[in-house]
Specification:
alpha/beta; Rossmann fold; single chain; 2 domains; 411 residues
Length: 411
């Protein structure tokens, strides 16, 4: 298995770099206690965990084994390796000797993930971090349940959550909740969406309809474009009939437009929308997690747009540390590996009961990590305290800071 020995050991230079960085490392800590637990979007607030049973004497000797199931081969091998590297970085920076990471390659397939899960269960793992893809999670979930192990997976397919499975991935609906809340605070009431004709695009459009309606606003238009097409102009023309070429055309029926796209497609859409809006008041653009890339401000048509994301400060420190140790930039999802391993470290220091139990994972006050404040609901879905960022040419700026506790999370 690639780089398997890194589960316990690092090279001399890596160890020295980690020790040098530890003093200023971003730490995973339990979040401050909140006096009340307001709802988060449409997700129910977590119920307080049951009192843990008295601690029993244990015969176990040595650190607890925590499995990390990621694709180290196949199409997603680069991302999987970065997530594993980030998990190892978290363990070294914390200086935690209570855990041993046990990495296994899933190959990016359901069969590979099931094989990896059986191996770590036989090896005595107490908690499973990962896998990454929905089919992998689906195959691992029953095996972990039979072994009485909890799974903290990186998928965003909400149907997989529940029982012994918790999803740590960034959930698109929560981005919409945060962005709509910010727009409503600014007096915007008429929403539209221009989304890819894909499961992700429909998920975002449905979320916009639900969240806007719940906030007392309306969704006036939703248009879908073919994500395989080279040109998105037809969808933009349907969204804004007439456009700049027709002075007699009525103004758009919306003041806020959700563009859940990324890469060159996003830039093309933004330019086409701005051109079609010429002569009328431009809509406030809203984004998604696909906007959370370093060069987003290079496109003038996106400047001034908003998107919800983890607060950038701690993640920036993580990226610097990752770059210093591994000599490359981490992909965006690598931080999930860091926070998952750091969370396992925090849980391992719990007092009383089983450290990786559902009661421990469902701490209603949550945790604060590289990607900010988060906690798990009894449904198994993660709830995150997101900031709202505004796109600027010199770099994104925080328009609305992320909450520090779930008491502050009132949207």
């Amino acid at each position: 298995m690639p780089r398997r020995c890194l589960a316990r050991f690092a090279s001399r230079c890596v160890v020295l770099a980690l020790f040098a960085l530890t003093a200023c490392a971003p730490a995973m800590v339990p979040a401050p206690l909140a006096a009340r637990q307001p709802p988060y979007g449409r997700l129910p607030p977590p119920a307080p965990p049951a009192p843990p049973p008295p601690a029993a004497p244990t015969a176990e000797v040595g650190p607890a084994k925590v499995a990390v199931l990621v694709p180290l081969s196949g199409a997603n091998a680069e991302l999987g390796q970065a997530m594993l590297d980030a998990a190892q970085l978290a363990l070294f920076e914390a200086g935690d000797d209570r855990l041993t990471l046990v990495p296994r390659d899933t190959g990016g397939t359901a069969e590979g993930a099931a094989k990896a899960a059986r191996a770590v269960i036989a090896d005595g793992a107490k908690l499973i971090l990962g896998p990454l893809l929905a089919a992998e999670v689906e195959s691992v979930k029953p095996l972990a349940r039979e072994a009485h192990l909890n799974v903290i997976a990186f998928s965003t397919v909400t149907e997989l959550a529940g029982g012994n499975t918790f999803l740590m991935g960034f959930l698109p609906r929560q981005e919409v909740v945060r962005e709509v809340g910010q727009a409503r605070e600014r007096g915007l009431t008429r929403f539209a969406a221009l989304a890819p004709d894909s499961p992700y695009g429909h998920l975002m459009a449905d979320a916009l309809r639900d969240v806007a309606s719940a906030s007392g606003a309306t969704t006036t238009r939703v248009e879908f474009y073919d994500p395989r097409a080279d040109d998105t102009e037809p969808a933009v023309q349907r969204l804004i009939p007439g456009g700049a070429a027709d002075a007699a055309a009525p103004p758009p029926s919306f003041d806020t437009l959700l563009l859940p796209a990324g890469g060159t497609t996003l830039k093309q859409l933004a330019r086409q929308v701005k051109e079609a809006e010429r002569g009328s008041k431009p809509a406030q653009l809203l984004g998604s997690g696909l906007w959370d890339v370093p060069d987003i401000g290079d496109e003038p048509a996106l400047v001034g747009g908003w998107f919800a994301a983890a607060p950038p400060e701690a993640r920036r420190v993580f990226e610097q540390h990752f770059r210093a140790v591994y000599g490359r930039d981490p992909p965006r999802l690598a931080s999930l590996g860091y926070d998952a391993a750091a969370l396992a470290g925090v849980l391992s220091h719990g007092t009383g009961g089983e450290p990786f139990s559902q009661e421990a994972i469902l701490n209603p006050s949550g945790f604060t990590g590289v990607d900010g404040l988060f906690r798990f609901a009894p449904s198994g879905l993660v709830q995150r305290g997101l900031a709202v960022l505004a796109v600027e040419p010199q770099g994104n700026v925080v328009l609305s800071p992320a909450p520090q506790t779930f008491q502050d999370l009132g949207y």
